[in-house]
Structures are given as structure tokens and as C-alpha cells.
Amino acid sequence: MTSHDRADFLRLVTGVSRFAIIHEDVLAREAEATKAHQRDQRVDAYRQVLPDEDFRRVVEGRVDSKAGNVVRRWLDTDRPILVLLGGPGTGKTVAAASLVADHGGRIAFAPELVRAFRARDTGGFREKDRAEQYVFEALRCSTLVVDDIGTAPEAEQAMLFQIVDQRRGSSVRTILTGNLTTQTMTANFDARTLSRLRQSAFVFDLGTEDMRRAR
Predict the structure, then answer these.
(1) Which of 12, 40, 173, 209 maximizes the CB count within 10 A of its CB?
(2) What is the dihedral of CA 111, 116, 119, 125, to 10 degrees?
């Protein structure tokens, strides 16, 4: 190979390398744009169910609260369920919604889910069919957030037991949030449900400090 041929060869190799780098960069940018678009779609789905300030914090990714830190710690554990307790404004729902926005999943409010479980078992044909689909999707999604547990403990017992029992041994993640303390939760839920939670859940009580008032 002459020196001229070697020079041509080196220029060719350099050109191919530059093209590969540019191509990889384009693919990375496209993947990042797709990921951002998917997150925006998931976030937009909760526009009607989250308070305005909470929704803005999810959109902007502002999950710098204690609750956000707890969720990140929990993801590094082998516990498939997180029970996030605390007073209103402690960041529970925002932290849970941000996880769903980033990774996909579903947010369900406890009273709504209770009604779906009941309709699945006792409703008329159409209502039962819709409820069956709703419950099926909730139990099978990658990340399920059940928000506001404890509003009607007696009605929630069977629902929570089924959710915990069916999702505790799989690769899916579940977050239960409620304006409760560990003491009131122990007092309000039956021994069977609490036993399942002790086996599978990471439980954290955030206390009562309202992050919205602290700002």
C-alpha cells in the first residue's frame, strides 16, 4: 500500500468513525425526546386528579421532599410495596405520581378502587364489566399507586388484602399513601392485612409537617 493509499484509507476510517459517533448521538437524542414525550403524556393524564400545585411539581420534576427521598431509598430495597404515611402536604402523592410519570403505571384513589372492587363482585353486567377491566389493569400495571388509604378502613380491608397478596411476590411495585400514622393504621386495619404488609412492605411515617406551608 502506497503512502497515498494509506492516507485515503485513514481518511475513510476517520469519516466512518465520525459518522458512527454522529449517528449514535442522533439516536440518543431521539431516545431522550421519546422518553420525555412519554413522560409528558403520563403526567398529563393526572392533570384532573392532582391539585394544581402538586401537578406543577410533578411536571417540573420538583420532588425534593422527604417523601421523594423515601421513594428513592425504597427502590433500592427488595420490598415490592411502600406504605407512605403522613399528614396532608407532606409530599406523598407528588413523590408517588412522579415515579409513575417517570416509569409508567397507574394512580388510583382508594375510594374509587373500593367501588370498582365492589362493582366487580356485585354490579350489573355493564358496570361489572367496566369494573373488572379497571381492577385487572390496576392489579397488573408495573407501578400501582393507591392514594388516600384509610378514609374508610372497613371498606378497604378486602381490597387492600387482595392488592398486597397479588402484587407482593412479583416484579411490580406498589405504593400505598394515606393521611395516617403507623399507630392509626395499626388500629384501623385488620391483623390479616397488617401481617401481609409486614412481610412485604417498607413502611415510612413522614410526620405532619406541611411542605406547602413551609415554602
Answers:
(1) 173
(2) 150
Residue 96: CATH number of its domain: 3.40.50.300
Residue with cell 412479583: 170
Predicted pLDDT of residue 93: 84
Q: 105, 99, 92: which is closest to 61 by C-alpha? A: 99
Measured distance CA(48)–CA(100) in Å, rounded: 15
Q: What local confidence, expressed as pLDDT, does residue 120 receive?
A: 85
User: Are 28 and 129 contained in the same domain?
Assistant: no
In whole angstroms, what separates CA 198 from the centre of its chain? 21
Those residues of the chain that have pLDDT short of 50 are: 36-38, 213-215
Q: Rounded CA gap, 177 and 138, in Å?
A: 15
Task: State residue 84's pLDDT score.
Answer: 94
